[in-house]
Amino acid sequence: MKPRVYVVILLLLLPLQAGLLTPLEINGIKPDLGLAALYIIGLLTGPAEATLAGIGIGLLQDIGSASFLGFTGLTRGLVGLGSGLIGARVLDRSSPLIVVFLALFILIEGMLISLFLQVTYGEVPFFSLLFYRHIPQALYTSILCLFLLRFVNKRGILSLLKRRETGKEL
Amino acid sequence: MAVNKGPLTPTPLQQEERVSGNLAAGSGVSHNLMNRFIVKHKKSIAILLLFSVLFWLLTIQVKIGRFSILEKPVLAVSGFVERIVTWPFKTTAAIVNGYVFLVGTERENRGLHEEVDRLKVENAAANELLLENERLRDVLNFKNLERPSSISVKVIGKELSPASSTVTINKGSDHGIQKDMAVITAAGVAGKIQSVSSRTAKIILLTDPASTLAVRVQRNREEGLLEGKLVNCALKYVSYYADIQKGDLLVTSGLDGIYPPGLAVGTVVTVTKHEAVAFQTVIVKPAVSFSRLEEALVLRK
Question: Which ipTM was obtained for this model?
Answer without folding.
Answer: 0.82
